[in-house]
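Why this split exists: single-chain examples teach little about how molecules sit against one another. For that reason, every record in the complexes split bundles all components of an assembly together and asks for one structure covering all of them. Below is a record exactly as it appears in the raw files.
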Amino acid sequence: MNKFYYDFHIHSCLSPCADDDMTAGNIAGMAFLKGLDIIALTDHNTLGNCPPFFNACEREGLIPVAGVELTTAEEIHIVCLFENLEDGVGFEDFITPHRSKIPNFPDIYGEQLLLGDDDSVSGKHPYLLSDATDLTLEAACRGALKHGGIVFPAHIERPAGGILGVLGFLPDELPFGIVEINSRNFPPDTKTNPALKAALPRNFCLKNSDAHRLWEINEAYKINYVNCIELPAERGDREAARRELFRLLRKTKKPEKL
Amino acid sequence: MNVGELSHICGFENVSLERPEKQIKTAYAGDLLSWVMARAGEGSAWLTIMTNTNVLAVAELNDISCVIICEGAELQKGFAETAALRKINVLRSESPVYETALKLGNLLNQK
């Protein structure tokens, strides 16, 4: 078993709320400097910047994961991760007709920059990406599973966009026993939140940064292996590490009902 | 006023009306279930646009007299069936939350 430091929730400049210098090259470079091994790109409702992100990670020797932070019709934020870039691209096609058609106003929401290689700007996404899709939680999970993905609810400690705030407790629709806590809020205060107290010990808990700015990306070696995962793979074998990661996440069991 | 009377007077759709005799004591409007769980009183009519099955669990937990789905919101898979199975009253109004609440408020004040 080897330790791999991760961050599975990072936004690029394609997310309106993220800094414009969250380019693929900058994210991969910063993750390398921070000692991370596996990182996922998870923009709001799109995987549009995943291809240049894969190239940038390749250059830094990191293991890239294609992902998306999807806002469901109930306004729950879920993270979907895909083992291969191709599966992620397939999921992008699945989401596209379900996004809202509200135009983005960059002055208010921020720019939504699509990247080419070498961090050049290749275009701007016209519609506001952070708005809710019309996919229900059930439909979104079903779609992600169909495209070979894994799903977990994002930042469940947060009242806004967190699944516990919206639905009160974890619903049956979730296909895996995985939850995410923002690494900066870990360990969360469960005294005033019984739903969080019930959910945490019964699920595999990932600690991701939800970085919108470069300095927010997770850091290795810092806080008691909090964002570290043990995988039966050699450190140099990136394909094996990614395969083992998804094997581990897929076999998390849905907790029994209370 | 009971749930059967309310539905009849307002012309709501009866998604599930297994216990029409339940009395409506007060009302609550909201969509974030964590808020509703902590705040909606027993015997409330609950106005919402959420149709995830967790709505039914919260309705049961808080002993809600009826859930009123507003603005004709589409019911998620299994919602109506689970409501009938658990004998939870669910009505559906074509009007938005505010207009539905006004109707309900006028009726509750008359009684």
